[in-house]
Model the fold of this input.
Amino acid sequence: MKIERCSGVYEPEDDSYLLMGVEEIKGRVLEIGCGTGIVGLSYAESGAGVTLVDVSDRAVLCAKRNALTNGISVNVVRTNLFDGIRGRFDYCIFNPPYLPKDPPDDRSWTGGKQGNEVTMRFLREFDKFSKYAFYIESTLSPVNRDMFSTLKFRVVRKIDYEFEELRLVKVTSNALHR
Done:
């Protein structure tokens, strides 16, 4: 797959590749924070029906261009996380901004003062759209899992660096009301 890197759009890095190639992810997939589209496009290329979402106009245009270049059919939407999204999906996937910074200087990298504020919102809302989610978590801004009594967390893969560990986390919702 050929992916164009676009100015002002998060470029694929190790965290992007950590989220790719999960055999379980099939069916209807919603990718939040798609950036260039590389992750969602890889699942669409494998037969999934993918909706790509990003808050950035540049990212939406970049993802559309990459889908067109590769002849991959996806739905691309500009919105903030789940705002305006309708329907159910088999999986929600997210490579969130997770670096701590107050105020955030780049929405593609910084996830708020603690670094996990965007991830926390994702975890509070994803089960309105899917029972399962996969997201990237950094040891620089870990999620307090005790705050989510209806969610089950499992680390699927990880990459260790000197200064942090990146984890691909699978989340299953046990909420009865969803």
User: Anything to note?
Assistant: The two ends are 36 Å apart (CA to CA). The mean pLDDT is 91. The helical segments are 14-18, 38-45, 57-70, 117-125.
